Amino acid sequence: MKKFTYSSILSQLLLLIFVIIWIIPTFGLFISSLRDKDLLAISGWWTSLTTTEVNEIYRMSGMASQIQEEDYFIIKGKLFENNPGKKIQSFGITSKKINEFKIGEVAIFKDESKVTIDENGNYLWKSLTEFTKKKGKRIFTTSLSPPSFTFDNYKEVLFKEGIGRAFINTLAVALPSTLIPLIICSFFAYALTWMKFFGRDTLLAIIIASLVVPLQMSLIPILTIYNDFGALFGVAAKSYPGVWMAHTGFGLASTTFLLRNFLKSLPNEMMEAAKVDGASHYDIFLKIILPLSIPAFASIFILQFLWCWNDLLVGLVFLDQVPSEIILTAKLKELLGSRGENWEILTTGAFVSMTIPLFIFFALQRYFIRGLVAGSVKG
């Protein structure tokens, strides 16, 4: 039987705590994206499965809806639609006393008109004199609203707010910006690890030194160089090729360094045996290095993709903020300024931005624990 020690139990508990800390905000964001916008504005996501007390303001119909019955002018209507579970508990005709009247009681306005409301929101407003105002009077209600979930938030975000287009633009940026440096660094790391040539150590030192260069310091100089080359070849610097090259340049040093460290751990005996059998560097790279390096490639792919997907600064500098080029993070930043009070828009947009990184992570996470090298060399 496996023996459990205090250290192993403590490590498992800490891991469980970290998982819970990571899952709770994600789950809360997902629940918030499915909630009705009115309930989302007044209560937290943890109340989504319970009945919530809601204070709301409605306006009755105006003079155009009145009919005459005997001595009274009557306006009938319903305060809310498409929410059959909501039940009104009390109402008021002034903001100072929003719970003044119970359901079934008669409220009298200053003009001596009377209104009654049932729990489903149906009202009857009657007056001895003809209604002359285009807008009806306001009604303040306190009601109990059951749990309500809807996909309307996703429809509005994806098709009306432009998040759908920004989502596609971000894919067009992130995928090439991940695959291009991954392909280049695979050859580069192999050469630095298993090929002997003059200046190899110096080149490796330059790569390590470039890791400490802040990204912000190089943005404007690189954009200036892109503008010069764009003017020479007739290509706009602020375009998809420009942002691909920028992400490749910024990510190549770190991806090469990480992959080189992994390749360095591979058994040297395999390379020597392959060379004895007459294999070239190209054959060794394709038939030995690539199959054994799948976990490393998966890890580097995840890191590079997440950086490109969540990037805001590079996208703002190297792409124009037009609907055909704006990326997801820039669009969310724009919505935060223009729709900052619409929580249903922000939470839904934020969760949409998380879907692809979550899918990539869970699709490739199994490669982190695969020991492809174990047992490859017997000694």
What does the model show?
By secondary structure, this protein is of the alpha+beta class. The chain has 2 domains: 52-146, no CATH class; 155-369, MetI-like fold, CATH 1.10.3720.10. The chain has 13 helices and 9 strands. It has helices at residues 6-34, 37-42, 152-159, 163-194, 200-210, 215-233, 240-264, 268-276, 281-292, 294-310, 313-318, 328-338, 343-364; strands at residues 52-59, 67-69, 72-78, 87-92, 101-102, 107-108, 114-117, 122-127, 138-145. The chain has a 5-stranded antiparallel sheet with strand order 2-3-8-7-6, with no helix packed on it. Strands 1-9-4-5 form a 4-stranded antiparallel sheet, with no helix packed on it. Strand 6 and strand 7 (114-117) form a beta hairpin. The longest helix is centred in the middle third of the chain and has 32 residues, at 163-194. The chain is elongated and about 110 Å long. It starts with 5 loop residues before the first helix and ends in a 15-residue tail after the last helix.
